[in-house]
Amino acid sequence: MGRVNLVLDNLIADKKATPMILVMPYGHTPRVEGQKYRANRIQRFENYLLNDLIPYIENTYRVAEGKENRAMEGLSMGGSQTIRIGVKNIDMFSALGVFSNGIRDLEAFEKANAEQLKSINEKLDRIS
Fold first, then answer.
1. Strands 95-99 and 126-127: what pairing?
2. Second label for 97, Cα 20 to 30 Å away, from 21, 61, 69, 119?
3. What digits encode the pLDDT tens for the residues 69-127?
4. How many domains does the chain have?
5. How far apart, in whole angstroms, are the C-alpha atoms of residue 5 and residue 103?
6. d(CA 78, CA 84)
7. Which domain holds residue 17?
């Protein structure tokens, strides 16, 4: 696909990136019987990410734990997941990278996350 492993390995070898573990989960969640596919899909992915995937990585691999050692970013659907999950959980991530996200109702998003958005720049090292 994007050969991210090779790109990142080369950046690390050229001292243009800090060594890191990059986790790229499949962003789709299973269908739930009796629900439309899109219903609660971001919430289901958020639950999986925060309650299953991050603890699994931190318990399985030798990684530096904590917000300061964790970032989230995504493109398109992943960008939408990043901004929706990341803004609600800024205590979990030091940086957010949002690329070509799909927030359809920006006004509703801003209203639902008004408190977090007021102070997001002070709570994150970087947002792009």
1. parallel
2. 61
3. 999 999 888 998 998 999 999 999 999 998 887 688 888 988 988 888 888 888 888 65
4. 1
5. 29
6. 10
7. 4-127
Q: 10 Å Cβ neighbour count for 93? A: 24
Radius of gyration of the chain from its Cα atoms, rounded to whole angstroms: 16
CA–CA dist 72, 82 (Å, integer): 6
Contacts of 27-30 with CB under 8 Å at 24 or more apart are 27/74, 27/77, 27/78, 27/81
Q: Give the whole-angstrom CA distance, residue 62 versus residue 57.
A: 8
Which residue type occupies 55?
A: P
Q: How confident is the model at residue 38 (pLDDT cuts 50, 70, 90)?
A: low
Strand-pairing partners, residue 75, are 99
CATH of the domain at 66: 3.40.50.1820
